[in-house]
Amino acid sequence: MAKMEKKNLGAPDETRPFPKGKLELVSVAGVTFGRATLEPGWKWSESVKPIAKTKSCEAPTFSITFPGAWRLRWTTARRRYSGRATYRISLRGTTRGWSGASL
């Protein structure tokens, strides 16, 4: 019989700090979930790129934004914005910026 697993992001399994933000992670049943807390002006290229050592974000993500707004730019030069309470799936090859203000 399968058992239920539950975890809370208030007590993450792992916290990854970086300039102007942090990522809190929990793993449940082999799936990792995270919560990013970002300061206004945060940019992937400035805060994470030096750690990841890649040209763009290589991790596909599924997210919801509360509050604030994302600025996304793909390596193909395509750009998008997403605002509060927006569900978003980003595939590989994006750089991101956080405005901290709602659209």
Verbal overview:
The protein is mainly beta and about 100 residues long. It has one domain (about 15-100). The protein contains two helices and eight strands. It has helices at about 45, 50; strands at about 15-20, 20-30, 30-40, 60-65, 70-75, 80, 85-90, 95-100. The strands form three sheets. It has a three-stranded antiparallel β-sheet, with no helix packed on it. The longest helix has 4 residues, at about 45. The N and C termini lie far apart (about 45 Å). The model has no long low-confidence stretch (mean pLDDT about 75).
SSE layout and pairings?
Elements: E1 14-18, E2 21-28, E3 31-38, H1 44-47, H2 49-52, E4 61-64, E5 70-74, E6 79-82, E7 87-90, E8 94-98
Antiparallel strand pairs: 1-2, 2-3, 4-7, 5-6, 5-8
The structure class reads: mainly beta
Give start-end ranges of low-pLDDT stretches. Answer: none
**Shape assignment:** globular
Major sheet summary line: 3 strands, antiparallel
Round the Cα radius of gyration to an integer and report it: 15 Å
- Main sheet: strand order: 1-2-3
Find the count of extended strands (DSSP E, 2+ residues).
Answer: 8
Secondary-structure element string: EEEHHEEEEE
User: Count the helices. How many?
Assistant: 2
Number of domains: 1
Distance between the termini: 47 Å
Percentage of helical residues? under 10%
